[in-house]
What we know:
By secondary structure, the protein is mostly helical.
Amino acid sequence: MRYLxxxxxxxxxxSTTKRLEMTDHLVELLKNTPKEIIDKVVYxxxxxxxxxxxxxxxxxxxxxxxxxxxxxxxxxxxxxxxDLKTSGDIGETAQRFIGKRVQQTFFQKPLxxxxxxxxLEKMAKTVGTGSTDLKLALLAGLLADATPKEAKYxxxxxTGNLRLGIADMTVLDAxxxxxxxxxxxxxxxxxx
Length: 192
């Protein structure tokens, strides 16, 4: 499944403040997601790669994200920082800079949910000497293959600022609608 499908859904969710519309967009995404990657899609939509109790985060600071954007776009870090000061949103800055890359790569491959998830998982598990450089290389590699829209949400995810405005209960509601059945699958409160 293309990561672009997630990015487009995130864009729709971000464009509304109505919880039911957000849930509808999530339901549509979940219904079209292959079952073997549903867990990855749910975690990515929550801006993480594991449940909170695991305690493992991607761990990319804004400064490292700026370096990755600069590397992937062929621009100077100073230019990325200046744009960020104006926009106030690292995702918007990433979208703008990846959209105006200085050079395109010949071997650009469309991002898939699986590749994004595996790369973010590798970044989260990378610790010790050289971990910052490896995280930078991994993130810049993803951004080099990303469309501008994908870059926006990738950078927001890795910096912990996905900002979709959906809570865990909204995700649970969407899962219930997408995969639930009759009355017996509704929450107990609704059955009463």
